[in-house]
Amino acid sequence: MSALRHAVRAWPTLLRIGVAEMVAYRAEIFIWFLTATMPLIMMLVWDRVAAGGPVGRFDQPGFARYFVATLVVRQLTSSWLVWEMNEQIRSGSLSPALLKPMHPLVLPAAENIAALPFRAAMLLPLVAVIWLWRPEMRWGVAAADLPLLVVAVFLAWLLNYLTQVCFAALAFWLQQSSGLFMVWFGVWVLLSGYAFPLELMPPALLAAVRWLPFRAMLGVPVEIASGLSSGLGALAAVALQLVWCAAVGLLARAMWRAGVRRYEAYGA
Amino acid sequence: MIKVDGLTKVYRVPKKAPGVWGSIRALVRRAYDEVRAVDEVSFHISPGERVGFLGPNGAGKTTTLKMLSGLLVPTAGAADVAGHKPWARDTAFLRQVTLVMGQKMQLLWDLPPRETFELNRALFDLDRAEYRRTLDDLVALLELGPLLDRPVRNLSLGERMKCELAAALLHRPAVLFLDEPTIGLDVRMQVAVRQFIEEWNEKSGATVLLTSHYMADIAALCPRVIVIASGKLVYDGPLADLVLRHAPDRRVVVATLRPLTAEELAGAAPFTQDDGRLSALVPTAEVKAAVDRALRTFPVRDLTIEEPPLEEVIARLFAREQELEQERKRGVVVAGRAAAGGSGSGNRGSGDGSGDGSGSGNGNGERPSA
Amino acid sequence: MSRLRQIWRALGAGTRVAVMIALQYRASFVGEAAMALLWIFWMVVPLFVVFRYTASGIDGWTYDEALLVVGCFITLQGILEAFIDPNLRAVVEHVRQGTLDFVLLKPIDAQILVSVQRTAPTKIPHMLAGVGLLVVASARLAHPPGPAQVLLAVLLLLAGAAILHSLWTLVVSTSFWFVRVDNLSYLLGSVLDAGRWPVGFFQGAVRFVLTFILPVGLMTTWPALALRGLISPAAALGALGLAAAFALVARAVWTFALRHYSSASS
Asked: Please, what is the end-to-end C-alpha distance for chain C in angstroms?
C-alpha cells in the first residue's frame, strides 16, 4: 500500500518530466502524429463512396464524424512502449530503471499520458478544416453518455498500454519484438474500426469481431463519440473493455515478471 | 556491509559457427557453451571501506557488481549487502545502494541534468529539504553549477559522468558500486572524479567497491584490492602487499659524475651502464646492500630507487594466474608453482610469466553482458 | 568503372551483414515473413469492404483494376523497406551520434554511399508479394496486358522507386537540422499509404498534392493505368521527367545540407 502512496506522490513529477521530454522531442512527436493519417485517407475514400447515397447508417457527414472521432481517439490512446522497451532491453539501459524503488513501467506510462493531450491538440486545425468541408457534421453525444466516453477512452488507452507491455516483455526473449508487434498492428487496423466502421463488415465476420480486444482498443470509444452507440449498448461495450483490460493486465503481469527473471539470469 | 560467500554465476552462451551458413544453422538449433563467469568468490567488506576490484577484461568484475547490486541472480552462493539479499531488489535495499556504470547512462539525454535529479527525487521518494541539501553538497563538490540547466547531449563526457555520479548519490546510498567510473575521461577529469569519490566516502562514510582500468584510480582510492581472474578470486588484501608480493624487485638507478671506465664496469655487477646511467634490478631485501655498494664504489651524483609501475605488477599477476589456470586445466599441478602463485615467496617473478604470450586474452569467449 | 565496382562491393558486404543480423533476430525474421503474407490480406480487405458498397465501381475503377494499384503499392512499399528505409535509419543514427564524419571521409560520393550501404533482406518477400498480386490481378482483367504494357508499367514503377529515393533523401537532409527524428521512416511509409487507392478517388487539393507534391498517386496509379493500356507514351515520358526533376532537387538539397552539417556534441 505504501508503494501505491509513493507512486501517487511521485506522479506529478513524473508527468512534469513527461511534458518536458515531450517538448524536447516535439519534432519527433509531430512526425508520429503525421503518421496517423490513415483515417483521413479512409474518410476521403468513403466520402467518395457515399456520394452516390448513404452507406448503411453513414452519409457523407456521418463518415466525416466517424473518422474525426477515430483520429482523436487514436491520438488519445496510442502508446509506443514496445519500441522504447525494445531499445532499453537491447542496450541494457533498463538496468538503472530496475534499480529504482518504483516499478519500471510507471515512468513510461506517465510519459505516455503526459504527451497525449498535446497530440490531440495538434488535431484541432485538421478537425476545423474537416468541419468547414462537411459543415453538416455534428457532435452527436448525449450529455448522459459523456462520462462513459471518458471512461471508454481511458480504458482504450490502458488496453493499448497493457498489450504493448506484453509485446515489450517478449523482447526479453527475442531481442527485437517490434516486428511481431507490427503483425498484430496490421490485424488491429482492420478489426478495431480504424480503417472502416466495423458495422460495414460482412455480418458473419462482425459477429465474431465485436468480441475481440481490437474493438475495445479503439472502436468502443469511437462508436460512442460518433453517436453510433449510446445508453445501455455503450455501457455493455465499456464492460467488455473492462474484461479485456483485466485479462490482458494479468497476462502482461505474468509476462513482464517472467521476462525480468530472464533478464536477471542472463544480464543485459 | 558486504558479505559474499561462494558467489557463482554460470552463463549459457549460444554457440554460433561463423558466416551466413552458421547463422542459418543457429536458426534451426542453438548449441550452448557454459561459461563460469564468476566462480565461488567470497569476501567481506566493512562499512566505509574503499575497495578496488581488479581483473582483466572478462574476468567477471561487472558480473559480480551486477549480482551485488541486484541486477543478476547468481547460479550459486550467497551475498548480503547492507543486510539484504541483493537480487530480491526490495525497496529498502534499493534505497541503500547505487550502481554507476561508466559506459551506460541513466541521465535523460535531451533534458538538463536537473530533470534527471528531480526524477530520481520522485522515484526514491526523497524528502524535499533533504534532497535540496544533498544536491547542494553534490553541486559544490562536483562543481555542477553551470551544467544543471544544459541538455545532457550538450555536455562533455566528463561533465556527463559528474552528473551521473550526482544522480546516483542523491538518495545517499550506503553502498556505492562503481564500474569503470573514469573510463574515457581525460586525466584532469579522472583526477576530479577520483577526488570526489574519496571526499564523498569520507564525508558520508559510504562503502565503495570500484573497478577501473586506470591503476592510478586504484592506487589513489583503494587501500585494499580484490583481484579476480577467470572468475576466481586470486588476491584479497592491501594494495601495498600485492605490489610487494608480485613485484619483489626494485630498480636502483645511479647517475654518476663521470662515465665509468670499462674495468670499473666489469666489477660493477649487477649494475649495468646504459645511456650514461647505471641501473640494477635487485630483490627488495638486497636493495640496501646494493645502495651501500654503489655509494662506496661509484662517483655518485644522484641515486633513486624505483618501483615498477602498478600496471606492470598487475599484468604480471594476471599473466601468472592465466598460466596457472591453464596448467590446472591440463591437470598438471606443479606444487612449487602453485605455492608461488599463492604466496609469492622465493619467486623472483621478473618476467617469467609476462613474456610468454598468455597476455590478456580472456579465453572465455563471448559474454552476454557488456 | 572501378567506382561502380566499389559501390557494388559496398552493397554486397552490407547485404551479407544484414542477412546475418536478421538471422540472429530469428523471431523477427519469422514475423516479417508472416507479415509479407498478411500484408496482401491487410491491403485487400479495406478495398474489398469499400467495393461491397459500390456496384458500378469508383472513378472508372472496378475491384480487379483497383487491385492493380494495391499490387503496385505493395511492390513499392517492399522496395522502400528493403532498400531505402534501412539506409534512412542509418543516416539519422549517424547524424545523431556524430559518426557521419566517417562516411564523409570515405572516397566515394557520400550520397551514393549512404544510399547503398544497408539492405533489409527480410523485407524482400514484401516486394515479391506485391509482384505476385500484380500478376494475379492482371490475369483477372478482361483485357490482360501485353508485353508493351508490362514494360511501360515496369518503367513507371522504377520511376516511382526513384522518386521515393529522392523523397527519402530530402527527408534525411532535414535530420541535419533537427535532433532525433528516427521516426521519419514511419512518416515516409504513411505518406505512401494514400497510394494504395487510385489517385482518382481523391479530389481537389488532396489530388493535386498526391500527384505533384508527394506524387504517391502517380507512383502507384500510373503503372496500374499502364497495365490497363490507358496511358500514353507522352504521359509516361512526363512521369520520367518528374522523376528526374525530383532527383535533381534532392541532390541539391543534400549538398546544401552537408555544407551545413556540424557534428553532434563529442
From this structure: 37
